[in-house]
Structures are given as C-alpha cells and as structure tokens.
Amino acid sequence: MGATGDKTAGRTSSRPRRQRRDLEFEKFRARLFSDESLLSFGTNEKGERVCYGVSIDKLSKAIDDGKF
Description:
By secondary structure, this protein is α+β, with helices and mostly antiparallel strands.
C-alpha cells in the first residue's frame, strides 16, 4: 500500500497559489487607484464620468515627490 502522501503527490491544483509578490502588487495597485489625484477621468457618450486609469504623467510626478 503506501503512505497517504503518495496519493496526493501526482495531483496538481487547478488554481495556483497566490505568491507574496502578487499580494504586494495588489496592495500597490490599490494604493494607486485609491488616490484620485493620480487617475485620469473623462466622460463617455452618455455624459457619465468614467475613469480611464492611472495617468503616467501624474504617477511620475508622485514618484518624484516621494509618494511612492
């Protein structure tokens, strides 16, 4: 027969485990999107305010200022 570890040795998880750097990136991304001064906004065809994402120019200035 064998040890119980033999049965699970060949199995692989369908979902990979999150790595530490993934969590660090998620935290960094949350910081970027929580600071509204870094975001680029516009209006869509309906006239609604939409966020286009983080502005590279604003992010560069924030890095130079020591925010990140």
